Amino acid sequence: MLLAVDVGNTNVTLALFDGERLAADWRVTSHRERTADEMAVELRQLFSLRGYELEIVDGVVIASVVPNLNPALIEASRRYLKCEPVMVGPGTKTSVRVRYDNPKDVGADRIANALAAYTKFGGPIVVIDFGTAVTYDAISAQGDYLGGADGRRAGRIGEGDCDGRPGLAGGRADSRHREHRAAPHARGTAPYLSTKLGWGC
Fold first, then answer.
1. What angle do CA 30, 33, 36 make, to 5 degrees?
2. In CATH, what number is assigned to the domain containing residue 37?
3. What is the pLDDT of residue 198?
4. 20: domain range?
């Protein structure tokens, strides 16, 4: 079975695939100080909750935007799963052609999103990912990654966003702070940061 790991700034999402069938999935909190041994203990406990053993895993793929966690993830995969993990990134061979000025600037999560969306729905398509930040990515009709932009930070209900404006209070949005603007996409880090400054935080 294939273990897919999506490492975000807030959560780590794990999915176990039997071919194309999703057999199980889990979500845990991201801890940058976690060691490979700690990850293995947690992973064994999670597998046990669903009636699986670590030995059933014969492939691992990791998409991570938290570089500090990568060495421990790789070590845990090698030592406890006996698998050399595939690390998703600009250098990974996929069908996604990154049309960014510097492809190395594109995060693993954006590449994974682009590949999944295009594989399932075709293109052109815009992917919106509601993670620690809301991200928007544009994929062409040919499956090329064209660029993206960030929206306002997705906070918890009742918390303010990153520019200090109120968040959702009691599950209701304050219409005074509701904005509906098209998200431009940028093809490089400098234009991307300019987009964030001009369009939102």
1. 90
2. 3.30.420.40
3. 44
4. 2-87
Catalytic residue among 6, 109, 129, 150: 109
Angstrom distance (rounded) from CA 34 to CA 22: 26
Segments of the chain with pLDDT less than 50? 154-183, 189-201
Q: State the helix-helix crossing angle for 70-80 and 36-49, rounded to 10 degrees.
A: 60
**Six token digits for residue 71:** 């060495």
pTM: 0.69
- CA dist 159 and 135 (Å) reads 19
Residue 96 forms part of a structural domain:
no
Q: Is 129 a catalytic residue?
A: no
Q: Which amino acid is at 45?
A: Q
Provide DSSP, 38-54. HHHHHHHHHHHHTT--G
Q: Count CB atoms within 10 A of the CB of residue 72.
A: 19
Sign of the alpha-carbon dihedral angle for 106, 110, 116, 118: negative
